[in-house]
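ERR on first pass: missing label on line 2. Operator R.T. fixed the label and resubmitted. Corrected input:
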Amino acid sequence: MTLIATDDFKPTTAAAPAALPARARRGGRVRLGPGPAIPFGMQLGSLLLVASWVIGSGLGLIDPRIFSAPWTVADAFRQLIADGRLQEHFGVSAWRAVSGLVIGVAIGTVLAVIAGLSRLGEALIDGPIQIKRAVPTLALIPLLMLWFGIGEQMKIITIVLAVIVPIYIHTHNALRGIDNRYVELSETLNLPRWTFIRQVVLPGALPGFLLGLRFAVTLCWVSLVVVEQVNATSGLGYMINLARTYGQTEIIIAGIVVYAVLGLVSDAAVRFVERRALTWRRTLSQ
Amino acid sequence: MAPHTVAIDDLVVQTQNLHRSFDGRTILDGLNLRIARGEFVALLGRSGSGKSTFLKALAELDHEVTGSGRLDVPENRSVVFQDARLLPWLRVLENVTLGLTGADDAGRRMLREVGLTGRERSWPVELSGGEQQRVALARSLVREPELLLADEPFGALDALTRIRMHALLKELCARHRPAVLLVTHDVDEAISLADRVLVLEQGTFVEDLSVDLPAPRQPDNPRFGQLRRHLLTKLGVATH
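pass 2 clean. output:
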């Protein structure tokens, strides 16, 4: 077989074409995603809300009897903190809410994994969760008082029952949505069940779990309010209820402000965890 | 064309009268196959010929199809898919050693063999298609499998990367010596890589020949062209 020498390939000898006329510069192609984040963008909406409150009260547009002015509320805050009442009530509420949250998240996750990986589990668990979801906490409280009394245990159980629902639904949904190709891959690698759950199922369900957690952290405070308004001798809900009895609108609003701040901070905290835990993704928000 | 004969001892894969059907349609029609230790077998076939079903049967991944027949495959086998299937939430080294304990050093060595030193801590999303497939190869071979099942592993790659991957696969198999079943639609790939080529047509093997070309197998070798024409004819593709 004769080898072909590289010289046998003739280079192109055609004349170079004339240069193309220069085009006028156009703007770049429109980007379809939301683009880079605005600094402090998250806080902008809330700050505008507060600003409108300040301006509205300052201009006399908001009736102080219906909705206290920001400075009156600030005064109430100063008073409550000086008395130590705010710290005391907040501490009690926080303990209840966090306990309920932690227990609820644990139970909700376990139920979601069982229902996600087993048809029998799904058959037994999914229905009752959907039922619980449809029943408002307020309606459930008299029953819970009957079964568990009126102590701390009953309050924490109420919160647990509320928190389980979003954790279960979002985790279960994300789990079921895990690409079947990863399940096939796990079978070809002969992964033992526990490794499969730890390395494939839980990370795959994590985005859904974190979304459920965002709902759960605000829900634990909301259900806390409800249960504290009905029967409590301490806590933020009790503080607000007492203020209602005495017509102290500014304390009611102070309580609402505390809830608002808690809600925003909890949500931001979960989003922060979300960003760190999901660095491996490239999604619309990058 | 030399027909293929296999010694009975040292068999890695054996199927007898393997039937598979789906939705009432017969996909595999009584297949008999033997693959010896270290043998590199390519399985050619048109789309719909049943070659992926056959590979899934060997991988014991075919839960939804009904079938019968005897199937003996080793426990220690690996599969390489057309998509790399790296877990996006694990770094490259963790993907390679998935399911193994204490295999970090072996994983690193394997990544060096596929030319990805220094990428152990990268996320899969940061790698190109060819690089991801190389990680998948590393993952499949780090376990030193007796049988490597590859389902059109280079089908999603561009032609230039494919050429490089052929060379890499040849090198890896020469070093680790698993038995290989490579499912492909690319006749040139089959002739370059395999010791033995099967053609599957409508659920049966219509050809089973030895590739008697010495290395290196160059496409401009007339014998290569002969084999190519013969296989294309068996596949029902007209050549000019």
